[in-house]
Amino acid sequence: MGHECIDASKEFKWSEDVKVKSEVTEIVLVRHGETTWNAAGRIQGQIESELNEVGQKQAVAIAERLGKEERPIAVYSSDLKRAKDTALKIAETCFCSEVTEVPELKERHVGSLQGLYWKEGAEKEPEAYSAFFSSQNDLEIPGGGESFDQLCERSMHALEQIAKKHKGERVIVVTHGGVLRAIYLRITQASSAGKLLNASVNVVHFRDEKWIIDSWSDVSHLSSVGFLQRGFDGDSKA
């Protein structure tokens, strides 16, 4: 019988059968499966959209992969449906009885760009489009959107809370392309995060208040179901 996932709203207590292997917390970050809007090139932000047929197959494929690896003590997810649906598949395969929703792990609110197609963003909402790709990290996107700094702050805080709650354990977190980009750039201080692919596996370690990227953008498990080559790229207008 596998360990049950932990409800983040409850105080964490060690169960007798849980043993700390090390001081390192391993967090497997997963981007949700492909959606109808991903395939259409439409900007989702915090608007709900469904996994399409490919995305559903991707969710199964990633669940099968993670089910063969070390069993996680918990599965967490953004509260947006595309992430939750992906997380539920993973939890089922990894013998976790529930998925704990973390609203702070939802996608970035991109203001008036939400609902538009990427190809029309620059023409219909030039200020918002420019703000999204701006190197000025404290610039909020017009139309109620977040700045990159705001996205980073909430994403990293949520991730750190999870890491501290599960010291020395392995957990899975299902989230979004924008959040993954923010996490990668904050940890590495790199100038670009590259493409963040649907249903990719991205592993980070937390120890002594420090983050380390263990592996990034692994989609080897998707060879039979495929994935969008363009992925999410918040670093380039191309």
Structural features, described:
The chain is α/β, with parallel strands linked by helices and 238 residues long. The protein has a domain of 163 residues: Rossmann fold (3-Layer(aba) Sandwich), CATH 3.40.50.1240. Helix content is 32%, strand content 15%. The protein is built from 7 helices and 6 strands, in the order E-H-H-E-H-E-H-H-H-E-H-E-E. It has a 6-stranded mixed beta sheet with strand order 3-2-4-1-5-6. Helix 3 links the parallel strand 2 and strand 3. Helix 4 crosses helix 5. The chain starts with 24 loop residues before the first strand and ends in a 20-residue tail after the last strand. About 6% of the residues have low confidence.
CATH superfamily of the domain at 25-110 and 146-222: Phosphoglycerate mutase-like
Strand order of the largest sheet: 3-2-4-1-5-6
N-to-C CA distance = 49 Å
Unreliable stretches, pLDDT < 50, 5 or more residues?
6-20
User: Can you tell me the CATH topology of the domain at 25-110 and 146-222?
Assistant: Rossmann fold
Strand content: 5-15%
Name the structural class.
alpha/beta
Whole-number mean pLDDT = 90
Main sheet record = 6 strands, mixed
CATH 2nd-level architecture of the domain at 25-110 and 146-222: 3-Layer(aba) Sandwich
Task: State the helical fraction.
Answer: 25-40%
For the CA atoms, what is the radius of gyration?
17 Å
Give the total of beta strands: 6
Q: How many separate helices? A: 7
Shape: globular
The ordered H/E elements are EHHEHEHHHEHEE
Pfam family, one: His_Phos_1
InterPro entries: His_Pase_superF_clade-1 (IPR013078), His_PPase_superfam (IPR029033), PG/BPGM_mutase_AS (IPR001345), PGM_Phosphatase (IPR050275)
Binding site for substrate: 31-38, 82
Protein name: Phosphoglycerate mutase
